[in-house]
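Why does residue order matter? Because the sequence determines the fold. Keep that principle in mind as you read this record.
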Amino acid sequence: MPNSAEIAKNAIDDFKKIQDYMIVAKEEGATKTYAKLKDEYLSIKAILTVLGVNLTDIDKMKE
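Structure:
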């Protein structure tokens, strides 16, 4: 069973990837893709907030 540090690391890695995909989707005008990615982004952001991760430096989207 993963500990909280492993969960936080995995969530941070996913958070960074999702943001990169969101940026590309926005540039391409892929509104449906962007909306789905945003749902995932918000879920991961909530998990990281509960874990006490400071998102100031890693949150590129600021949404």
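The CA atoms of residues 56 and 62 lie 9 Å apart.
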